[in-house]
């Protein structure tokens, strides 16, 4: 006999439909703000590149996506923390229903909580500095943390295939797209940017453009993921879960 299938209904949600509507409004505004901030950072770097005698002292750091004091960094912290909160809500719902994927939800919640803290504390940069002192970091390995993080991420993604397949096709595709966007930025472009930074420096125009694309892909991945979480919690796709 097959296991019973449980579908998420509005009465099973960890918060009300009205609250979800508010989240959707905030999400839409966040997407717009993220696009504007990435565009502003691109524009600033283009302008500074074509201005004679322009340097880093002329930069508006609030608009620099690679600065810890920028508006973009603050948005990234808020977005990753919001994703972690939504994941904890989904994990609680999964645990209440006895879903076999409850620990997947809890793991993702903890992971995004760590990502949010990393945006604030730049843990990966400190790890990269430690690794650089122990291994030869050159070329694509210039930022030494990126390659090992990429390998671990791909192994983790493979382990989550059954979890992803439990979603309806459209949401499953969006989950994969969100992971691909985030990893292409955080790992792929980070490695390419490192090879450029080694030769031209971190203030070079090519490195700045790669950094803008990297941060843009990262925030896009997080926002797509938040959209999937909101769709799941709302029950818009009537996602089935098996015990």
Outline the structure in words.
With 243 residues, this protein is an all-alpha fold. The protein has one domain (9-242). 70% of the residues lie in helices and 2% in strands. It is built from 8 helices and 2 strands; from the N terminus they run βααααααααβ. It has a two-stranded antiparallel ribbon. Helix 1 packs antiparallel against helix 2, helix 2 packs antiparallel against helix 3 (102-121) and helix 7 (169-200) runs antiparallel to helix 8. The two termini are 13 Å apart. Residues 1-13 and 236-243 have low confidence and may be disordered. The chain crosses the membrane at residues 71-91, 103-123, 143-164, 171-196, 216-233. Keywords: Membrane, Transmembrane, Transmembrane helix.
Brief write-up:
This protein is an all-alpha fold. It has helices spanning 17-50, 71-96, 102-121, 123-132, 146-159, 161-165, 169-200, 205-234, and strands at 5-7, 240-242.
| Overall morphology | globular
Distance between the termini: 13 Å
Q: Record the strand order, biggest sheet.
A: 1-2
Q: Uncertain spans, ≥5 residues at pLDDT below 50?
A: 1-13, 236-243
Helix content bin? over 70%
Number of DSSP E strands: 2
Q: Could you give a short account of the major beta sheet?
A: 2 strands, antiparallel
Q: DSSP helix count? A: 8
Radius of gyration: 20 Å
Average pLDDT for all residues? 84
| Element-by-element helix/strand order | EHHHHHHHHE
**How many distinct domains?**
1
Strand content: under 5%
The chain-level structural class is mainly alpha
